[in-house]
Design the sequence.
């Protein structure tokens, strides 16, 4: 049986905005030693690997998931500083988390960003 994967159609701008928000969140985390320590403890990444990992969509997804993991100490303070709403953080997380196709003009010109997963038969 093949696993069914729902693919979102998003604009390149939505993907770029989600990645930019995650990079802003990473910068905000990096500004405070306690936040960095909590991020390293939770993710298990070594501090010397963060800069290299920051180019990865999966890593940026992890940054937003970390921010969303604690509303009082992470999400709301980050939103206050970044001027992003909690909903925008959630939407950015959803864009980075789900398989998507980037819409270039018309529906006929959609380019797959990632391929659907295949299940075992």
Sequence:
């Amino acid at each position: 049986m093949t696993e069914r994967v729902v693919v979102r159609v998003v604009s390149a701008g939505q993907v770029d905005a989600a990645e930019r928000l995650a990079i802003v969140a990473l910068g905000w985390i990096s500004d405070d030693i306690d936040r960095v320590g909590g991020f390293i403890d939770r993710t298990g990444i070594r501090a010397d690997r963060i800069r290299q990992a920051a180019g990865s969509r999966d890593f940026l997804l992890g940054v937003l998931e970390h921010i969303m993991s604690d509303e009082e100490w992470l999400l709301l303070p980050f939103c206050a500083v970044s001027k992003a709403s909690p909903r925008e953080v959630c939407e950015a997380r959803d864009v980075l988390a789900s398989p998507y196709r980037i819409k270039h003009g018309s529906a006929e010109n959609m380019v797959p960003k990632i391929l659907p997963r295949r299940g075992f038969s």
